[in-house]
Amino acid sequence: MNKNIFAVAIAALGFIVGLAFLGNAIKNRNKSDNTISVTGLGTKQFTSDLITWSGSFSKNNVDLKSAYDELAMDRKVINDYLLSKGIQQKEIVFSSVDIQKQFRSYNDSNGNYVQGEFSGYNLTQKVSIESKEVGKIENLSRNITEIINRGIEFTSSSPAYFYTKLATVKQEMIASATKDAKERAEKIAENSGSSLGNLKKATMGVIQITAPNSNEDYSYGGTFNTSSKEKEASITIKLEYEVN
Predict the structure, then answer these.
(1) Which residues partner with 37 through β-bridges?
(2) CB 233 within 8 A of CB 174
(3) What is the distance between the alpha carbons of residues 215 and 211, in angstroms, rounded to a whole number?
(4) What's the domain of life for this entry (predicted)?
(5) For site-directed labelling of 40, which of 11, 47, 89, 122 has its Cα 20 to 30 A away?
(6) Cα atoms in the Cβ-side hemisphere of radius 13 Å centred on 45
(7) Positive or negative CA dihedral for 161, 164, 168, 171?
(8) Which H or E run includes 54?
(9) Could you report the per-residue pLDDT of 222-242, keeping only the tens digit for each?
């Protein structure tokens, strides 16, 4: 008899404890559901303050030394030209010389590719400039035909534009996006007759830098436009608040 009473008591205690756990689970579930998640956007437009530009030039000759000497003469003409345009010597960087052997090739009567006899050396060198004088380098890149008119086989690349104070811009956008997200959350809570509680979670998106008013696509890892001097950056912040 005593054993039966003891068993019933244990079962009753277990039932009570189970109810307590169930009640806490329901309470915690309802608490976790009672949240607001919002996404804020921060944007900033700015003008690039750093520019890079490069070009390449080449010479062909059956004699390697002659080809190198001719390339060196072109290099001096290019260097002197850049200095005459106000470019500082420390901003001018010449790469190492790339040497390629050239062969006369043809297809035989069966259509097979045949590498023929040696026809000479092709030497190519690259010159690049990095400067904070954006306007000056822009003008230089547009008028590079002056070098070509001097008999130099020169190929110019498009300038690339950068911004050296991007960290400051990012901080400003994060602050703006956070403010935007909080205002959205407050409005939602107000319209539902509630108030915001503690901030539970904040998630920051990647920075996207595009040309203003462009149709450039955003990418998962972030977009970084270098072809436009004028830029527009954006970032998103997702905030999750408790609601009282």
Answers:
(1) 240
(2) no
(3) 8
(4) Bacteria
(5) 47
(6) 6
(7) positive
(8) strand 50-61
(9) 899 999 999 999 999 999 999
Residue 95 has which token pair? Answer: 């790469």
Q: What is the pLDDT of residues 70-96, one digit of tens each?
A: 999 999 999 999 999 999 999 999 999
Smallest Cα–Cα separation from 125: which of 68, 51, 87? Answer: 68
How far is 104 from 119, CA to CA, in rounded Å? 6
Q: Give the HSE-up count for residue 98: Cα atoms under 13 Å, Cβ half-sphere.
A: 11
Residues 6+ apart with CB under 8 A from 99: 64, 121, 122, 123
CB 95 within 8 A of CB 126: yes
Q: CA–CA separation, 181 vs 184, rounded Å?
A: 5
> What's this model's pTM, rounded to 2 decimal places?
0.76
What burial class does residue 84 get, using C-beta atoms within 10 Å of its C-beta: 0-12 exposed, 13-18 middle, 19+ buried? exposed
CA angle (142, 92, 74) in 5-degree steps: 75
Question: Number of helices (H) and strands (E), helices first, in the chain?
Answer: 5, 10
CA dihedral 80, 84, 90, 94 (to 10 degrees): -40
Q: What are phi and psi of 52, to 5 degrees?
A: -125, 145
Residue at token pair 């309802």? 30
Measured at the alpha carbon of residue 26, what is the angle toward residues 23 and 31, in degrees to the nearest 5?
125
Q: Which band of pLDDT confidence, cut at 50, 70 and 90, is reported for residue 31? A: very low
CB 223 within 8 A of CB 216: yes
Arithmetic mean of pLDDT, 35-62? 96
Task: Tell me if residue 13 falls in helix, strand or coil.
Answer: helix
Q: Are 82 and 140 in contact (CB under 8 A)?
A: yes
